[in-house]
Design brief:
Order of helices and strands: HHHEHHHEHHHHHHHHH
Number of helices: 15
Strand order of the largest sheet: 1-2
Largest sheet: 2 strands, parallel
Distance between the termini: 88 Å
Shape: flat
Number of strands: 2
Amino acid sequence: MNKQKAKSKPARRHAQNQLLRQAIEPQRLPFIEHVYELRKRLFYIALSVAVFSGLASMFHKQLTQWLLAPAGNQQFIYTSPGGGFDFIVRICVYTGFFLSIPVIVSQILLYFTPLVKKETMHFLHWVGFWSAVLACLGMSFGYFVGLSAGLNFLLHTFSTNQIQALISVQSYLSFVLVYLLGAAILFQLPLILLFINHIKPLKPGMLMGKQRWVILIAFVVGAMISPSPDVKNQTIMAAPIIAMYELSIVLIWMVNRKHRRPKKVLALLQKDAETREKRVNEFTRARQTWESAMSQAIHETKATVLAQSEPVTAGISPMPQLASIPQHATRQANRPRRYISDYSKPAIGRPVSPTTRKIQISK
């Protein structure tokens, strides 16, 4: 019984240590748990897209009218028996995906929540909200202003009595989606510059100096979005890009102003820098004075040694120079008698030379 109790004590200690480690350390889930979590998030996203697509199918006629409104009186075709059904399905699926964007973003953030800090998650929520707002503004501008002007130029400028535009409704839908997506991305310029400023602070003055290049790029992009020779249309297309850039400069100035140091702190830092510079100057001056004094003392010492080495009066031999005296003679003269006698003793087990024996006998 005692042996069993003795064996059970280490097992109990081991179990207690494991419980303490599990309580202190964060739980590490196996890989299959992450796969299950990802599958659950994807299921929620697919369910959201399916639900919103089903709701959009109930209003597909109204959605078709909104989609074809920027084209005006232009007639569209489909080139296969199932082309009309395919067009309706695409409209419903794209609408469901667009309405499910908040659900998609939230599910992605929930999946990565255990790996991200709270401050970073708060920043991501803030960025996601304003990104959605700017995307909606960009798509609204592209739909109500840019798309109608671009289609008017592309569909009616090159048409003649012999040339008529026969456009499939699927290609028109693809063109509209790409156009609206590009407008949404262009309106993300303030967030892009704020993100760059978060990594490396930007100066508003430097951004103001780049305005001429921004204006040039805005007109080039406006010409690509709405390829019209009319200056009015190009100005309408370029104006939002320039406005977004100016808004970015204002936001960067406000953000950098909040993180600027107070005046008292700046005054103390400036005073500390002046004091440090003063101490460095004093140290440099003292070092120069010491170096000059040392060089003068060395020069005087050399002059004194040279003066002592020359004969002072006739009949008196000059003092020997210090360099002419061998160093080993000086060391040997300063050594005690006992050291010399001990050093001259023969080693044990070695034969003694006759000269050494004579010296020992004479001693």
